[in-house]
Design goal:
CATH class: Mainly Alpha
CATH topology: Na+/H+ antiporter like fold
Shape: globular
CATH architecture: Up-down Bundle
Oligomer: single chain
Number of strands: 0
Length: 310
């Protein structure tokens, strides 16, 4: 109960206030969309750049850590695709979007604050190591799969794939911030303290703003139909994924901090990027949106369980 009250509920209280603010018409969806754009295009990129530029790479970037998390994520993508295509009788494109939803944990908006509340700011090094590869890995899996299996394509088009990857790397502020942060860290580029202080002010607003905006955004994704498919996605995302990561991480002898970060991040609900991916291809948007909303609610229980276990 103490874990629920002191670690999980503060995060979901902020999300809930954002949800209520739109439900009661205190803020419009346009207001929430503006907050979301600020968080995703400015505040969170500053947070990621600041953290990754200052992180001790040799201590936090572990191949065993990354393999534990991303093996579980890829396995969940495959299971999600197979079940959606063969059992739920979805088209190949819809099945890929459902698999992508099973793959993409909300590593930033939920994983960071819950891990920080549970174990303190010093425990986030492994979270940032996972996040540095999260969006690139997930989008590459999704885009390559869609290009391979897209019904309108007769063969794999490397030119289209290269163009999409280029746009992903250089037009996505989150990924761009991670890349620049890695370069600054690796080369030890000198940055004036005044710039660090300015970035620090913006980064401190990132998670509260993003959580509030997430609540307002989730109000727009009220669940409709597809109950069995939604339950399956939630099961794979917040139950199967962390269980696989825990098993693999234990066998690879991850230290406790790495295991905590990997498992708790895996136990988070699908992120909003899953809906963006399905919207990009205009497939399975309703079931993905509903899975994000209900999965976010269910994360209260999955996060509490794994924090107690760990």
């Amino acid at each position: 109960m103490e874990v629920l009250l002191n670690v999980i509920l503060p995060v979901f209280l902020v999300i809930g206030i954002g949800y209520i603010s739109v439900w009661r018409h205190w803020l419009s969806t346009e207001n929430i969309n503006s907050l979301t754009r600020f968080a995703q295009n400015f505040a969170i990129p500053c947070l990621l750049f600041y953290a990754i530029a200052k992180i001790e790479i040799s201590e936090n970037f572990s191949l065993r850590l990354l393999f534990s998390f991303y093996f579980g994520a890829l396995f969940c993508f495959i299971i999600g695709f197979i079940a959606a295509y063969f059992y739920f009788k979805r088209t190949r494109e819809e099945a890929i979007c459902i698999g992508f939803t099973c793959l993409f944990s909300n590593s930033i908006l939920l994983g960071l604050p819950i891990t920080e509340n549970a174990y303190g700011p010093a425990s986030l090094g492994s979270n940032y190591a996972i996040i540095a590869f999260h969006a690139p890995f997930c989008y590459l899996v999704g885009i390559i799969s869609m290009e391979l299996f897209h019904s309108s394509s007769e063969k794999f088009d490397l030119k289209i794939l290269s163009h999409q990857v280029f746009n992903l790397a250089f037009k996505n502020p989150l990924i761009f911030a991670i890349l620049i942060g890695l370069l600054v860290n690796y080369f030890g580029a000198p940055i004036p303290s005044s710039i660090w202080n300015g970035l620090s002010i913006i980064k401190d607003a990132a998670l509260p703003t993003a959580l509030f905006a997430l609540g307002g955004t989730l109000y727009q994704y009220r669940p409709e139909g597809d109950g069995l498919t939604i339950c399956f996605i939630i099961f794979v995302s917040i139950i199967l994924h962390p269980a696989i990561v825990y098993f693999v991480g234990m066998n690879l002898l991850l230290n406790l901090e790495q295991l905590r970060s990997a498992v708790i991040t895996a136990a988070m609900a699908p992120g909003i990027n899953a809906f963006l991916f399905s919207s990009m291809y205009k497939k399975a948007q309703r079931v993905v949106a509903s899975s994000i909303l209900l999965g976010t609610i269910a994360t209260v229980f999955s996060a509490s369980f794994w924090i107690l276990i760990l």
